[in-house]
Write a structure and sequence with these properties.
Length: 152
């Protein structure tokens, strides 16, 4: 069973549990000082126990971590590339279809016109498929980032 990444309160990155020096601080940030707002002490981040200060025992989150949490909550917006790929597919389909109809109407070759229309259908399906894949990957990413998931 895979282990869920843990969010470091100092750098706000998701790290594998093996890369964490404490329950909420990664090894990279463990040698940085962490400031307690309650008592004003500065201690190494890896010395804090379960996010609580060693001097006063109050749990404290660094200012940068709070700002990153707010920024990440606002980042749960659907990526624009999904709509761009779908729109590009429809535009290519329309252009290829119109070119195909024009070629057929000018009697330059019905086979070439039909081939242009079919290529537009293939381009549409490819771009709609890419946008659907990215949309599914985005949904998977959002669902796996939720902390309330059970391991079963």
């Amino acid at each position: 069973m895979s282990e869920m990444p843990i969010n470091c309160v100092m750098c706000s990155t998701n790290k594998h549990p093996s890369l964490m020096s404490s329950s909420d601080t990664c090894q990279d940030c463990g040698d940085m000082n962490r400031h307690c707002k309650a008592c004003g002490s500065n201690r190494l981040a890896k010395m804090w126990i379960d996010g609580s200060c060693l001097n006063c025992g109050v749990a404290s989150v660094p200012d940068g971590a709070i700002a990153n949490v707010i920024r990440n909550d606002n980042a749960n917006v659907k990526p624009q590339i999904i709509d761009h790929l779908a729109n590009l597919g429809w535009i290519l389909f329309a252009v290829s279809g119109l070119c195909g109809i024009m070629v057929i109407a000018q009697e330059m070759g019905a086979i070439l016109g039909i081939a242009l229309i079919v290529s537009g259908v293939f381009q549409l399906s490819i771009f709609l498929g890419f946008s659907a894949i990215i949309d599914q990957l985005y949904k998977i990413n959002v669902n796996t980032a939720k902390p309330d998931k059970s391991d079963s």
